Amino acid sequence: MGSFFSRAVDESMKSQKEFMLMNSQLQLERQILMQNQMREKQMAMQIAWTREFLKYYGTFFSLAALGLTAGAIKGKKPALFVPIIPLGFVFAYQYDMGYGTLIHRMKGTAADILEKESHLLEMPQGLPTFELIEKARKAQRKFFVEK
Known about the structure:
By secondary structure, the protein is mostly helical. 83% of the residues lie in helices and 0% in strands. Helix 1 runs antiparallel to helix 2 (84-99).
């Protein structure tokens, strides 16, 4: 009778373990999906911000280029063309970020770094551990209690 009871308990424990494992896997999958959706939304906001900024900067760049060109021709001062060069680089960068392939190139470079230069991504002194966090928390708590 004891073995019958222990067998039932063992089976119940096994099914509970399987349920807990499945539940934690499902929770992890949901967290990964949620974090990815948040990342995508943040990237979309960054691209939208860049496109909006480009509208304003494009207007400024156009007016500045027209004004500098008119001033250079009217005053016969070719030095007035010089500011158009750096302003043009900024405009090209913003355009590439908002409508071009800059993000694709950045993703490719990031993939290369992850694959070939992962040592650059290591945290100084390694990943934080529970013990280190607890030690810092207790030290901080002690600091505030003493004040």
